[in-house]
Amino acid sequence: MDINIDRSLTGEFSKTIWSKFRKSIDEYKMIENGDRIGVCISGGKDSMLMAKCLMRLQKYSNISFDTEYIVMDPGYAEENRSKIVENAELLGIPVKIMNTRIFESTEKAEKHPCFLCARLRRGWLYKTAQELGCNKIALGHHFDDVIETILMGMLYGSQIQTMMPKIHSENYENVQVIRPLYLVREADIISWAEYNSLHFIQCACRITKSEGSSKRAEVKQLLKSLREVNPSVDMNIFRSVENVNLQTLISYHRGNEYHHFLDDFDKGLSVKGTNKFEKDS
Fold first, then answer.
1. 100, 76 Cβ separation under 8 angstroms
2. pLDDT tens column, 118-157
3. Pair 200, 12: CB distance under 8 Å
4. Which domains does the chain have, with CATH numbers?
5. How far, in whole angstroms, is CA 278 from its chain's centroid?
6. What is the distance between the alpha carbons of residues 205 and 176, in angstroms, rounded to a whole number?
7. 177 and 169 in contact (C-beta within 8 Å)?
8. How far is CA 39 from CA 69, 90, 138, 170, in A?
9. At residue 38, does pLDDT exceed 50?
10. For a tag site, which of 60, 76, 155, 208 has the least CB within 10 Å?
11. Alpha-carbon Rg of the chain, whole angstroms?
12. Contacts of 16 (CB under 8 A, 6+ apart)
């Protein structure tokens, strides 16, 4: 293990990575005493950094929790698998590599292989984490993933939604998903990797190969253009889903409960939530 890589988290990248990682953990109450966390490692920069941060948190914080560092091999090419093992050893991450045949299954899909692959991976990770006694699963999504998801929902899904910092599993009882890098910027993760001369695998899918035409890639390019006009656009998008006035929406739902603005219109509620009829009387 290269100790300088570990030190860089609380040195050069203390403000941009470590502090934001800690803020994500604390602000959204992601980890509690007694947790056993399945840390999902794809081999990319995000999941490797997340694993490194969780190792440091486990060593130096007052929170007592256990971890399992899980690498699911869906059928990687040997060079990609070797790179994951090499980086794990360099970073001192005690990974468990689990072999699956997910790529073989998705190769047979005529349509939407990426959707099927994601679904199979997710199901496998939940099942494996539960078998290992984990009550939480940590994923490496970062700040940029969050704001891209918000825009993708609006532009392509006709809905307002965000990627949540933690959620309950719908199909696996007592299992939660947490995202410890929720407030960490992708540019800072790239800077950390470059500073430490680290090289991680990119998309290792042997089916689609390129993500250049994906909707997420389109949104990334859109955000890049918007930043040139408004440098604050990323944070504005992020905060937009923290500051929602339900009375300015045509309709919304909470679970199966649906609400339309006309349901309360005759009560005289204004946009600010005050009762116009009461004020005028």
1. no
2. 777 888 888 888 899 999 999 999 999 999 999 999 999 9
3. no
4. 3-144+156-210 (3.40.50.620), 245-281 (no CATH)
5. 45
6. 27
7. yes
8. 5, 17, 5, 19
9. yes
10. 60
11. 21
12. 184, 185, 188, 191
Concatenate the DSSP letters of all residues of the chain into one string.
Answer: --HHHHHHHTTTTIIIIIHHHHHHHHHTT---TT-EEEEEE-SSHHHHHHHHHHHHHHHHSS---EEEEEEEESS--HHHHHHHHHHHHHHT--EEEEE--HHHHHHT-SS-HHHHHHHHHHHHHHHHHHHTT-SEEE----HHHHHHHHHHHHHHHSS-----SEEE-SSSTT-EEE-TTTT--HHHHHHHHHHTT--------TTT---TTSHHHHHHHHHHHHHHH-TTHHHHHHHHTTS--GGGSSEEEETTEEEEGGGTGGGTB-TTS-BHHHHH-
Amino acid in the structure at residue 4:
N
For helices 143-157 and 186-195, angle between their N-to-C axes, nearest 10 degrees: 140
| CA–CA gap between residue 126 and residue 106 (Å, rounded) | 19
* Per-residue pLDDT tens over the stretch 233-247: 999 999 999 989 888
For 247, the token pair is: 């009375």
Query: In angstroms, what CA-CA distances link 241 with 48, 59, 163, 178, 225?
Result: 28, 34, 10, 18, 21
Contact 59, 27 (CB under 8 A): no
CB 18 within 8 A of CB 10: yes
Contacts of 109-114 spanning 24+ positions with Cβ under 8 A: 113/207, 113/208, 114/205, 114/208, 114/214
